Amino acid sequence: MGDRSDKRAGLLYGFGAYGLWGILPLYWHLLESTPPAEVLAHRMVWSLPTALLLLVALRRWSWIRPLVRQPRKLGLVVLAAAAISLNWWLFIWAVSVGRVLECSLGYFINPLVSIAFGVLLLRERLRPAQWAAVAIGAVAVAVMSIGYGQVPWLSIALALCFALYGLIKKRLQMDGVDSFTAETAVQFLPALGFLVYLAVMGEGTFVSGGTGHALLLAVSGLVTAVPLIFFGSAAVRLPLSTIGLLQYLAPALMFVLGLFAFHEEMPPERWAGFVLVWIALCLLTWDALRTGHRTRTRLRAAAREAAECGAAARQPSGSSADGPADGSDASGTGSQAASAPCTKP
Length: 345
What we know:
Elements: H1 2-29, H2 36-58, H3 64-68, H4 71-96, H5 100-122, H6 128-148, H7 153-172, H8 176-200, H9 211-218, H10 220-235, H11 240-246, H12 249-261, H13 268-314, H14 333-339
């Protein structure tokens, strides 16, 4: 019963995380009058106080001193902060210029880029279905490039930044809240310096934009942190296969917003590209679910075999009703037969 309630809570957290990420363009659209660089700087500055409040609430400070003593790990934190900063800026800029559908495409092709990174950088081996999915994704990009007369660079850049961020986080091996705090600490001073510069030059909008505008900018830290917290809560309660399916919710919501809320154009070549990417993702999802099912089946079979071996090992010699009364064969053929199932590889 507890496991079922945990999964239910995990699903709610997962839908909350990806749902909030999916409707985030609506929030950034409210700030379209502010230059994307300033919005990004406010997001970075206000994220650190939010992260520190989380650490106070969770009483988690022990990771800071060991991190400071590891230059290599600190370097990875800086790289992660740089990758996610570029991703944030591209996303905010794209919303401000009415290119939400390209953002949606970028996050749809992100799993395919992550797989390509695994092959090229981590020397991972792909299954045939994964190769087919990556090939279909490449064809989708080619179709849109030919149709538009240019490569969909924004979608590719967003996918590359986020896939690189995920790769660095994999190497970093830090908890979500801890790494979020470390990354925002790296971002804080440069962002604060930029905002001070804008204020001195009279180009900042935090004060001149009015109280409502200032509140929107200040809330950007909370908007950044809440989905991350929800995602962390979902990740510890749900299997990776479920998380993998939920991740498509965010770009799907962005697609709906771009099409119906922001009324962006959807010419035939863009439809063709999206359909091909969706086919690739369906193939990828089917392969992941099938592989996960096979793995669980093998694990259950191994667990049953181990239980049978354990039961056979605990059975006292000569206890079988069919065995000889004097137990003369108990240490011979009988014990060999009992141990036989345990000799399987």
